[in-house]
Specification:
The protein is α/β, with parallel strands linked by helices. The protein has 2 domains: 53 residues, 2,3-Dihydroxybiphenyl 1,2-Dioxygenase, domain 1; 60 residues, 2,3-Dihydroxybiphenyl 1,2-Dioxygenase, domain 1. The chain is 21% helix and 33% strand. It is built from 2 helices and 8 strands. The strands form 2 sheets. A 4-stranded mixed sheet has the order 1-4-3-2, with helices on one face.
């Protein structure tokens, strides 16, 4: 089991809005809160957002560079994945591979794909 994942973000306030909504939809609970960060916990694991220092913002993030490509979460059901898709669209968040939804990852992989404000790809997968 992963202990925690820490993501440095370019705009903490914007990322808190995005990740807070999503993580709470996935049953994570608010955990820690301080000036430069926020975290949400599920079981013994937690996800942390930290404001990147200004000196490091210029390099930016791209999932095709060396490093993290995406985070994939378990959804509760296909209905839950569809609900998330509808909520993302209402929030104006672009759905990746929309023309292949919900099988962009293959016929046995019912999932939604999208990006966070820093363009980290996020996937939520329904159980088989």
């Amino acid at each position: 089991m992963i202990h925690h994942i820490e993501l440095y973000v370019s705009d903490l306030k914007e990322s808190i809005v995005f990740w807070g909504w999503l993580l709470e939809e996935l049953e994570y609970k608010p955990f820690q809160n301080w000036d430069e960060g926020r975290s949400w916990k599920w079981g013994e694991s937690y996800i942390v957002l930290v404001q990147a220092e200004e000196a490091y913002l210029d390099a930016g993030y791209h999932r095709k560079r060396v490093g993290l490509n995406h985070l994939a979460f378990n959804g509760k059901s296909r209905v839950h994945v569809d609900h998330l898709k509808n909520q993302l669209e209402k929030k104006g968040i672009e759905i990746l591979y929309k023309d292949k939804y919900p099988y962009a990852g293959g016929k046995s992989h019912y999932a939604i794909y999208f990006e966070d404000p820093d363009r980290i790809k996020v996937e939520v997968v329904a159980p088989n």
